[in-house]
């Protein structure tokens, strides 16, 4: 085991509390520092947890909590106009689980606090200084904290990433804004069915809510990225009007927008992905989750990969003889997997914000997706069947193909 006994975790979203729980199981004491004053800030919308993500949560004892909270998705459908294509699913794996990010984060915070993991809110990191034996974090309120290791779980706009490597790339704007709401309009789909629809002017998805109505999410093309604060400074009714205009020619898109309450519209702001990050760690600082690998939401794997990386980092710190070896092993076990999934999602994501030729390209994209879907074991098997063997040593594990 490394000499790491204490850790500072910056970021209390998804990867942060999971990392703290996994570190506790590895014999390392961690404190989570979260910028926001609580977990109910409304940041983000609904996210998906793939079977591999739920399997990783099992290691920290949070899988059943998520299963009880989330909505299972047993069937996925691709729609383009009147065409509907059922996408094959992997046999023998649990369903996709969809859950609101705030709800998942709150659940993980409760789990961490129940196990004695300290979580401090309203603590925004501004700098960190390393020594040969430790690292000290400095926060905006003037306070500091010191530990053996600092973990950046602070999302795509990570402060820690710039401390690890001042030349590191920032997040890449995908060209779309995200929105979400629940419509009273019922769709012609069985419960547990998620439909990915390519409208005439924008992409959207929807599924029946267990309690009634239809939950939908939309990606509107937008030339200039907007921060979350900028997007939310615009009145919801204005966004609602723009959504109504964008989906006026779509079925059921038009009805979904029309029967949604503008005041309940969830604005997620600009959607970003992370390009390849050259350096995942430096000295006593390391990155996990979206701070280092944030694929397009087309992957359905963003949250799951974040959970996996948090668990694998703890496992490497437990099993490798020193910190440099542990961080190198962590990157070796994670990089190829997350970058491969991100590359697959990027190809799909190009279809979400079509240009003038979109109506020509979309049918071709459908045929391509269908060819891919005909081989789900080859494409999705390595992603969704992946499990971390917590009991085995990370020191001897081979990198996933």
UniProtKB/TrEMBL annotation:
One Gene Ontology term of the molecular function aspect: FAD binding
Taxonomy, superkingdom: Bacteria
Key word Oxidoreductase present: yes
Keywords tagged on the record: Monooxygenase, Oxidoreductase
UniProt cross-references to SUPFAM superfamilies, sorted A to Z: FAD/NAD(P)-binding domain (SSF51905)
InterPro entries listed in its UniProt record: FAD-bd, FAD-dep_Monooxygenase_BioMet, FAD/NAD-bd_sf
Name of the protein in question: Monooxygenase
Upper lineage: Bacteria, Bacillati, Actinomycetota, Actinomycetes, Micromonosporales
């Amino acid at each position: 085991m490394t000499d790491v006994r204490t850790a500072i975790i910056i970021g209390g979203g998804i990867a942060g509390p999971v990392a703290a729980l996994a570190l506790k199981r590895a014999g390392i004491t961690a404190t989570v520092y979260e910028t926001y004053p609580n977990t109910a800030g409304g940041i983000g919308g609904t996210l998906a947890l793939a079977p591999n993500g739920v399997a990783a949560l099992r290691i920290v004892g949070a899988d059943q909590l998520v299963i009880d909270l989330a909505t299972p998705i047993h069937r996925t459908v691709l729609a383009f106009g009147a065409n509907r294509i059922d996408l094959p699913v992997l046999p023998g794996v649990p369903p996709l689980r969809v859950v609101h990010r705030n709800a998942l984060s709150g659940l993980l915070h409760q789990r961490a606090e129940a196990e004695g993991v300290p979580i401090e809110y309203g603590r925004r990191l501004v700098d960190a200084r390393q020594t040969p034996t430790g690292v000290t974090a400095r926060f905006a309120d003037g306070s500091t904290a010191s530990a053996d290791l600092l973990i950046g779980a602070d999302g795509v706009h990570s402060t820690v990433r710039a401390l690890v490597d001042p030349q590191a790339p920032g997040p890449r704007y995908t060209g779309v804004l995200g929105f979400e709401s629940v419509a009273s309009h019922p769709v012609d789909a069985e419960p547990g069915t998620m439909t990915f629809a390519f409208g005439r002017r924008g992409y959207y998805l929807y599924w029946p809510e267990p309690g009634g109505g239809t939950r939908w999410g939309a990606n509107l093309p937008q030339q200039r990225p907007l921060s979350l604060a900028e997007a939310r400074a615009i009145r919801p009714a204005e966004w609602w009007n723009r959504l109504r205009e964008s989906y006026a020619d779509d079925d059921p898109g038009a009805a979904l927008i029309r029967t949604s309450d503008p005041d309940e519209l969830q604005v997620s702001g600009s959607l970003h992905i992370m390009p390849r990050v050259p350096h995942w760690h430096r000295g006593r600082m390391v990155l996990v989750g979206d701070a280092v690998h944030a694929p397009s939401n087309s992957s359905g794997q963003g949250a799951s990969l974040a959970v996996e990386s948090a668990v694998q980092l703890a496992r490497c710190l437990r099993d490798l003889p020193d910190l440099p070896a542990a961080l190198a092993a962590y990157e070796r076990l994670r990089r190829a997997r997350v970058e491969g999934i991100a590359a697959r999602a990027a190809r799909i994501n190009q279809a979400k914000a079509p240009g003038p030729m979109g109506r020509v390209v979309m049918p071709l994209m459908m045929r391509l997706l269908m060819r891919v879907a005909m081989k789900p074991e080859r494409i999705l098997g390595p992603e969704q069947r992946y499990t971390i063997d917590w009991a085995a040593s990370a020191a001897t594990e081979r990198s996933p193909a």
